[in-house]
# Entry
Amino acid sequence: EAQVTQNPRYLITVTGKKLTVTCSQNMNHEYMSWYRQDPGLGLRQIYYSMNVEVTDKGDVPEGYKVSRKEKRNFPLILESPSPNQTSLYFCASSPRSGGLALEQFFGPGTRLTVL
Amino acid sequence: QKEVEQNSGPLSVPEGAIASLNCTYSDRGSQSFFWYRQYSGKSPELIMFIYSNGDKEDGRFTAQLNKASQYVSLLIRDSQPSDSATYLCAVNGGYGQNFVFGPGTRLSVLP
# Structure
């Protein structure tokens, strides 16, 4: 089954304790992305990657790191989480296109609480 | 800062009516436009995408794009209670650029 998986689905942690949220897709997509979703603010892009070893900042990259060492994986790293990073996080992937952006496929989401 | 705006709602329509959802965007260079549906606590799922000015129909859904007015809309005909969800408008300037989402419009279809 074609899908985007995220782990963990739920996480409660404390301020300053480094964490990683994994994202993996089995559709051979070049484009992968991380979003956070907060009430009233919609989905905001954190980082995205067009291919292995190529990453770019989205609208809200502060406090986050990413890496793309393999095509299928795109982990999100919070080196020192703070309470304002409490949010619902989505990973998404999209196939490569010649010019126009194509549909994104979203993972199930990770609900993160930072105390 | 690229912006996408939507009425937050809630938009309430009776079952069987037409629901009209609107979205405006600030970046004139935007090329791809997407409508996603999101049920509470779930991930967004694509309803339609549109690239060219005009209308695009898929079943009960019609997307309308007017690049001159920087406006994209989604019409849902014969609305069903199962259509009750939040509808997200997303805009992109081309492959390799970031996606910008609107805050979403909550739709409630009343039986």
